Amino acid sequence: MTTEHTRLVAALRELRTRTGLSLAALAEQTLYSKSSWERYLNGKSLPPRQAVRELCRLANEPDGRPLALWEIAESHWSGRAVTPASAPPKDEATRPNPQESPPPVGTGWRQLGGTRLLVVLASAYTVIVGGVAILLFLLLPDSEAQETEPVPSSVPFSFAPQCHGTACEGRDPMRLICGIDPDTLASYRTTTGAHIELRHSRKCGASWARVWGTEIGDRVDVTAGGPTHGVRIRNKDDAATFVYTEMTEVRSGSTVRACFRPAPADGERECVKAHVGEAATTARPPSPQ
């Protein structure tokens, strides 16, 4: 897979985890088969644009960011983003390709009758296909053949979160199933173009922040009056997808606050806050705080 395709697959797997649906359940709720979803989520083929939109719908996720990743991946997959190779020199273009010349009619070829030649070719084909099949089996542990085995990313939709309240403090919202169908308390766009959302899980009694559209070195911190948890954008892969802070415990009426610090040393901090239990808000860059 290309880097662009890898980023798309990571985003799709994250969305699938948040839905809590198995491949069979995805097939039941979309226009795409179980085997198709297996290929899309393992990077074996590029999903159609509509499949990405369907997965966003099931995950209750705006489709803008995943579709942008799909468009980038599709341009590389289709070759539109690749510069065409320059034409070979005129003398090379007209020169016959040695590989296209017929094999010399030597003693070895005369000794091989038609039937014997077919047997040899069939045997070679069997060895090659068998070797490839074994290699794929060893290198693709997420293949459809293992779909019947229980895996963490194939939990049922009603699977209970694995923490609540203080037990969630400082822990990963996605790994502990708190990221399935969360509320968005507030959305905010920074002056640098980064997007921040304050997320809240009522089942987990915890909130966190997620950010995208960032630059390497950016940082986001979140707190609800207790410990502060932050995440820094470490590399280009972080900058190309969603990044989450750890969770902080909240109760009804708690004030959750996230602050963004851009990478440049002279960049000013920008913060957004929301109260648990109130309607979500969307903000554009106010004066830095």
Question: Care to describe what's here?
Answer:
The chain is an alpha+beta fold and 289 residues long. 33% of the residues lie in helices and 17% in strands. It is built from nine helices and ten strands. It has helices at 3-19, 23-29, 34-41, 49-58, 64-77, 90-94, 107-111, 114-139, 236-239, and strands at 183-189, 195-201, 206-212, 219-223, 229-232, 243-244, 248-249, 255-261, 270-275, 281-283. Strands 1, 2, 3, 6, 7 and 10 form a six-stranded mixed beta sheet that branches. β4 (219-223) and β5 form a beta hairpin. The longest helix has 26 residues, at 114-139. The chain is globular, with a radius of gyration of 26 Å. 27% of the residues are buried. Residues 83-115, 132-158 and 285-289 have low confidence and may be disordered.
Query: Into which percentage range does the β-strand content fall?
Result: 15-25%
Number of helices: 9
Helix coverage percent of residues?
Answer: 25-40%
Give the helices and strands as they follow along the chain.
HHHHHHHHEEEEEHEEEEE
Provide mean pLDDT, rounded.
76
Question: Using only CA atoms, what is the Rg?
Answer: 26 Å
State the secondary-structure class: alpha+beta
Catalogue the unreliable spans: 83-115, 132-158, 285-289
The major beta sheet can be summarized as:
6 strands, mixed
Using DSSP, what is the number of strands? 10
- Tell me the overall shape: globular
What is the straight-line distance between the termini?
A: 42 Å
